[in-house]
Amino acid sequence: MLEIETLKLERDGQLLAYDFHVPEGQILAIQGRSGVGKSSLLNAIAGFLKPRSGSIRWQGHSLLALAVEQRPVSLLFQDTNLFEHLSVKDNLCLGFSDPPYEALWGAAEQLQIDQHLDKRPGELSGGQRQRIALIRTLLRPEPLVLLDEPFAELDPHTRKLATDWTRNTARTNGKTLLLVTHQADDVEKVADRRLELGLTA
Amino acid sequence: MQMKIAAWIALTSVVLMTALAFQGLFGLSSEGPDWALLDDPYFHRILLFSIKQALLSALLSVLLAWPIARALYYLPHLPGRRAFLGLCLLCFVMPTLVLITGLVALLGRSGLVTPLLDTITGERWNLYGLIGILLAHILLNMPFAVRVLYLQLQAIPDSSWRLAAQLKITGFERLKLIEWPSLSHTGLMLFGFIFILCFNSFAIVLTLGGGPRSTTLEVAIYQALKYDFNIPEALTLAWTQLLIAGGLFLLISRLGSPAWLSVDTACRENTPSARGVGKRLLLLTYGTAWLVLLLPILALLPGLLQDSLGRFDLTDLLRPTAISLGLGVIAALAGMALAYLTLQPVREAAIRGQRNRRVLLEWLAVHNLVAPAMVVSVGLFVFLLPLMDLDRWGMLWVALLNTAVVLPFAIQKLKPRLLQFDSQYHALARSLKLTRWALWRIEWPFLRPVFASTFALVLVLAMGDVAVFSIFGTQEWSTLPWLIYGYAGTYRIAEASLTSLLLLGLCALILWGVEYLQGREKVRPKKGRA
User: Is the pTM of this model over 0.90?
Assistant: First the structure.
């Protein structure tokens, strides 16, 4: 269980408040207007943003004292997810002590990006880059997965492929998944539950 | 953790070297600095001259570089553009003695162009003094300014030119609204940086100054130590130099540093091209720049035709060439390793947003740029003399001190690339929980092109050293610049020219070789994203 309790974050002089629980294995879609603090929340859980007060607990243990590297979290950023000077294949294999090659190549094939693995990220479209980062984030061993607008740049066809794959993979591997999205469609296809953030969430 | 320890050891060693040098001088004289000197007209004169020549050198270098950079930018089909940029780099790192030999062959008492200048000016032309110092400083630093300004112009977003074209902004407005804002900040920093280099200039002022009227602080320190062995005076002068140059450097560090000397590859579609009279003027500027930069080098060629060279045994140059290369490689490798290590705490402070800490650490790492080289060399010599046999270990110290001399240049070039890596990828790397080794394997290919060009640059710089060798070197281990110095000092201009050309050829080969290798492994061009 992920427990976010009376959590307060400060961003650009604005105080953001959060209070919710996510049971293990659940997929939660987080929505809300721009600037309401969706990405800040993910950054705080991953350890990139220090909260002003409150607690973040996973399986009963507080995450706040842990460094980014020690948290059981795999995060997909909204923008920079790939090293531009490395090949797509090299990027895909990062973040594993022992990369699960079969699963990685299989997912690449499923999401129709297997023919781009030898290229550099700069040669891919926005949607292709997003799918590469999505595969890596979800297949990493961490139990808690945070996705910041993972389907934003996808066309309807690949969007369906990606949402189906995300839900199935999260289910199969027992991941607890927090997904920030603006699309009601994504909520319907992927999430078990939806959380709407307001300025005083 | 080990990396952190290594980084702090590296930084401490760099600072310790200077501290020990000062300790060496303090140890010799119980009096400390002679503060009464501050009221002496002699001190005022050299201080004013140091500032005046540095100010003029920096101002003229930047002002003259501007139209050349514009020619490179606004004339997309210039013949020999790449070669010209290569020549600019070569001129900046050219061993000072090579330039001086070329300038003397061209404009000295019996120089190739001197009779013409005598006729034009109507009096006996004299290279020595402020004119000679300015000419040499401009020839060394103007090409550097050209590269920086050209790079900066290339950083103007293509969208700005598209918008300007759409709004029909032309001529002066374009200069005011687009070009000036993109250059003014860099121009100012460039001015400061060149000012520091010229303020601390030694070999040029010593050889072309022509007497006590044209003395700078650095040369005065040398004279105080070498001729009078007046340590209190040398210390006062050293502190003055350290405070002025160091203060200015701190100011520049706060402004940011120019991302200099990198090769730009951006493809541009909407950059306006010069036309009509403007185009002809820029072409003329470009042609003149080629001529001005090449002349001191070409002036070395007639020396090769002199009869005296017939008796010269070329194999005499083999050993000094090997020694110069060996010393250069050791100093460059050590300089690169030290630069990478000393930049670690700087990167950490930058990531944490600790601006003051970052500036301070950076200043400590590159303080050799502003610390008087003469004081550091002589101070260390005095400190080490009772501790070891310097006849035997002197060459080791030549390599070590040259490492310290090239370190600021290595740091200035590596820093922007490493900070760029951190700003782009630090969060991603942390989120991927990479080990130190895994991170290095990602960082290395990102760093490699800059690392290679920086290595070539500092290698060439170290190969040109005379100052450190003059104190720690021995005749038996003579380097090429030291040979040139010896030949020039005994008026063997033919031999000096030949050796200068050999050294220059080696430097050009190193710079060109690295650029060629980089060109071969250049990343494929990016395609547009769908």
Answer: no
